[in-house]
């Protein structure tokens, strides 16, 4: 399994069908089935989901291609016709999501369905589609991460073998992080959560916002491990655009839930603690990103931020316990985040100058857990 056992395409006689296309068609079919069932449960206008799918599939492909081309223009400027050769690869999931959102806007303007209602209906199917579609990356041997040189880590699904063709025509296989699998596994778990949450959500948009927060938290971490990120150049420096976009989306969702909270009740000390945790989490994640790429001297700064997160989580638990006198999902979440962040911070002691790829990733996971929990806190406070 370290290499695709069935190749990149299914061969039937003289016909060759890429596995990527088959998997995406399967994902669309399953998503249509699940979303149609939810459409009936919510008693939406008939064929709302079908109309959306007919618009979302072509728009998703076009936007996914344009997104990729926009950040890889150097590969297309000498031969613009290559932009049309989609079968050569080069689609970006965030572009596809943007295309889907545009399709949802168009469809909901034509009937009596709210945009956020349709987004809620389709969010679990989107997560499932991503979980399935990432295996197309496996078949194409793409969307992988950095080289894995440690022998103990050279096994699937932690890593995969990727061919490198040398100038003399010889081919060597090297182990790389299986980042496509990491995302596929997370999206599968996300689908299960959203599918169950769909029937419990209290307000329109909650399921879609949960998808945005939890997917973007994962993408922020995994994107930092990839070797093929789409980069944005700012003031001479390069930023992973999908990582930056994920962060902006998470902050926006947190602001939406906080806005709901402020309309319902006066913010408390714990709410401002949650904002502090969100800001610290984002800072810790990005300082770690710069540390991994080129600036090892930022190790101490990132460690300080991790310890500050531990202190803030502990302060939140003490404050909440004194005022609420009960244990609920907020306490369990904060305690879990505090415990994991503490283990990561302690594990980092004495690691200055060491090979910290794994450790930085663990620190970023802890940071994004705090960001997601802060957003979850605003949601719970606004709906209680």
Helix-strand blueprint:
Elements: E1 9-12, E2 15-18, H1 19-42, H2 48-70, H3 93-109, H4 115-140, E3 159-165, E4 171-177, H5 179-197, H6 206-223, E5 231-234, E6 237-240, H7 241-264, H8 269-293, H9 299-324, H10 329-347, H11 357-383
Antiparallel strand pairs: 1-2, 3-4, 5-6
Oligomer: single chain
Q: Count the helices. How many?
A: 11
Query: What is the chain-wise order of helices and strands?
Result: EEHHHHEEHHEEHHHHH
In round numbers, the mean pLDDT is 88
Shape: globular
Tell me about the biggest sheet?
2 strands, antiparallel
Distance between the termini: 47 Å
Q: What proportion strand?
A: 5-15%
Radius of gyration: 22 Å
Write down how many β-strands occur, each being a DSSP E stretch of 2 or more residues. 6
**Main sheet: which strands, in order across?**
1-2
Q: Can you give the helix content as a percent range?
A: 55-70%
Low-confidence region ranges = none
Structural class: mainly alpha
Describe this structure in words.
It is a single chain. This protein has 384 residues and is mostly helical. Helix content is 65%, strand content 8%. The protein is built from 11 helices and 6 strands. A two-stranded antiparallel sheet has the order 1-2. Strands 3-4 form a two-stranded antiparallel sheet. A two-stranded antiparallel ribbon has the order 5-6. Strand 1 (9-12) and strand 2 (15-18) form a beta hairpin. Helix 4 runs parallel beside helix 6. The chain is globular.
